[in-house]
Amino acid sequence: MFDHRSPADELAHIRAEIARLKRREAQLREAYLTQPGMPRLGRWTKVEIVTHSRQIFEPRLLPEDIRLDPAFQREKVTRLLRTMPHARAGRHLPPLVASEQISAAPQGEMSILAAH
Questions:
Q1: Using an 8 Å Cβ cutoff, are 85 and 93 in contact?
Q2: Interval 13-52: pLDDT, tens
Q3: Could you tell me the CA-to-CA distances from 68 to 3, 59, 73, 101 in Å, in that order?
Q4: pLDDT value at residue 83
């Protein structure tokens, strides 16, 4: 099937569908974590709840003089790509935002993250 939507409309449609799927996933996840009687065996899939514990570095626990020292900071640049209905839009889609975060590291590394 050929899609006749413009790329902007297609992007907004995809983001709306992703948002719907994320909401549904959150509902199912919450149900599995709070309702022990949820069926865990489907026709093709089995759900297991696995718990992991690990130590993490917590910068907020460092002394303030170290946290505020510019030698231990870097700049982070964020670029947003927003979709929103324009004035002629007959139907309004929910505004969704994706961000592309570029870390200004000395090596020029890039990381791309999608917002949710």
A1: yes
A2: 999 999 999 999 999 999 999 999 999 999 999 999 999 9
A3: 51, 11, 8, 22
A4: 81
Q: Give the residue carrying structure tokens 């979709």.
A: 83
Radius of gyration of the chain (CA): 21
According to DSSP, the residues that pair with 99 across neighbouring strands are: 80
Cβ neighbors of 31 (< 8 A, separation 6 or more) are 38
Collapsed DSSP state (helix, strand, coil) of residue 18 = helix
Is the pLDDT confidence value at 114 over 50? Answer: no
Residue 37 corresponds to which amino acid? Answer: G
List residues bridging with 97 in a β-sheet: 82
Alpha helix (H) ranges present in the chain?
A: 7-34, 64-67
Q: Which residues are registered as beta bridge partners of 102?
A: 77
- Least Cα distance to 79 among 116, 114, 107 occurs for 114
Residue 59: Cβ-neighbour burial (10 angstroms; 0-12, 13-18, 19+): exposed
Give the C-alpha separation, 75 to 47, whole Å.
41
Full-model pTM:
0.59
Alpha-carbon 2 to chain mean position: 29
